[in-house]
């Protein structure tokens, strides 16, 4: 409701309007809450299941869900299938793709006709994410040269780091009231900030959605448990047991490319939580030869939408100009152009 879905919630928190840049203009879309227990999804009555929640369980549960969904709606069996995500989806998507390809190969049948994955502002490598985010802050003038020099002197961003000194260096600054998901956007919801830094983006959207999803008739229509208190993001910490997966997804992505999957990674260039700098470090670690060098790509109104480069095996990395962490929120038209190009298997217009 804030990004790529068919509807936006109006400021009254009660009514909807259509999103003309919704991704289901181009494809059938299933939205799946991950991991279990977030949003309206229900984890389990069995504490043992909750303790096993993590990357592996998320991939396995999602695969089982998709198999059952295709049995219930068999007309979709055999169709081209793509999976997309953002942020920690940089872990979810490659791992789900791995389960799908493994099960298809193991049983010598096409359970799911997976053709590719499309991941935005992803966490691909925990160490490179930390390094890249700090470098992003420095390169955009949010931390000083002295702080950055201290970080470089005390942090290798590998398991060899002395945690204490690196931690001290990495926390020796305060960037003020900056919204980390878009360093140029208003941080808080104020009437004066309704249009935000980007036309059409409203920093108060989260509150509209929260009001809407806490309406009883909406919960009933969604077949959710009624009287559920839905929150976009907890205001205070809540207990949530989760077993993380591998530190890096780079080897996993490389294997998917070698198996012939179309893998596209894109980054909004104003995000400091999963920055474009972090992603470039991980893309470099793939060690794939460049086949089509870095160039600008354009929207239909001849604006530069971002930049793109393609690598051996079709792996593609693209930036989205003027977008924060949630690319379809900040730049909905540019996100749609990129998705269209991904589904067509060709680079966006040059």
Automatic annotation (TrEMBL):
Recorded GO MF terms: serine-type carboxypeptidase activity
UniProt keywords, alphabetically: Carboxypeptidase, Disulfide bond, Glycoprotein, Hydrolase, Protease, Signal, Zymogen
Cellular component annotations (GO), alphabetically ordered: vacuole
Keyword Metal-binding: no
EC code(s) of this entry: 3.4.16.-
GO terms under biological process: proteolysis
Enzyme class: hydrolase
One Pfam family, short name: Peptidase_S10
UniProt-listed Gene3D superfamilies: 3.40.50.11320, 6.10.250.940, alpha/beta hydrolase
PROSITE patterns xref list: CARBOXYPEPT_SER_HIS, CARBOXYPEPT_SER_SER
Organism superkingdom: Eukaryota
UniProt record similarity statement: Belongs to the peptidase S10 family.
The protein's name in its UniProt record: Carboxypeptidase
Species this chain originates from: Triticum turgidum subsp. durum
């Amino acid at each position: 409701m804030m990004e790529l879905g068919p509807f936006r919630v109006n400021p009254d928190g009660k009514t909807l309007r259509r999103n003309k840049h919704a991704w289901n203009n181009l494809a059938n879309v299933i939205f799946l809450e991950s991991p279990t227990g977030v949003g309206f999804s229900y984890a389990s009555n069995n504490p043992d299941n909750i303790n096993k929640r993590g990357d592996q369980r998320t991939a396995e549960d999602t695969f089982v869900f998709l198999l059952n969904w295709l049995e219930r709606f068999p007309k979709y069996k055999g169709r081209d299938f793509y999976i997309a995500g953002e942020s920690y989806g940089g872990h979810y998507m490659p791992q789900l793709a791995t389960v799908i390809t493994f099960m298809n190969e193991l049983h010598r049948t096409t359970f799911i006709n997976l053709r590719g994955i499309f991941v935005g502002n992803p966490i691909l490598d925990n160490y490179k994410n930390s390094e890249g985010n700090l470098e992003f802050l420095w390169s955009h003038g949010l931390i000083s040269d002295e702080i950055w020099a201290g970080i470089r002197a005390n942090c290798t961003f590998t398991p060899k780091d002395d945690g204490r000194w690196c931690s001290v260096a990495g926390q020796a600054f305060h960037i003020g009231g900056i919204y980390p998901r878009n360093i140029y956007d208003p941080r808080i919801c104020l009437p004066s900030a309704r249009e935000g830094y980007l036309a059409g983006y409203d920093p108060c959207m989260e509150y509209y959605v929260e009001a809407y999803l806490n309406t009883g008739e909406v919960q009933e229509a969604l077949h959710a448990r009624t009287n559920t208190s839905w929150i976009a993001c907890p205001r205070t910490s809540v207990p949530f047991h989760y077993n993380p997966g591998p530190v890096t997804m780079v080897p996993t992505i490389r294997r998917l490319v070698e198996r012939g999957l179309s893998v596209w990674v894109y980054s909004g260039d104003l995000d400091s939580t999963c920055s474009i700098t972090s992603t470039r470090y991980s893309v470099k670690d793939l060690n794939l030869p460049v086949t089509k060098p870095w160039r600008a790509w354009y929207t239909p109104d001849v604006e530069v939408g971002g930049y793109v480069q393609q690598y051996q095996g079709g792996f593609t990395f693209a930036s989205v100009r003027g977008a924060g962490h949630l690319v379809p929120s900040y730049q909905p038209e540019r996100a749609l152009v990129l998705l269209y190009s991904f589904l067509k298997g060709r680079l966006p217009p040059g």
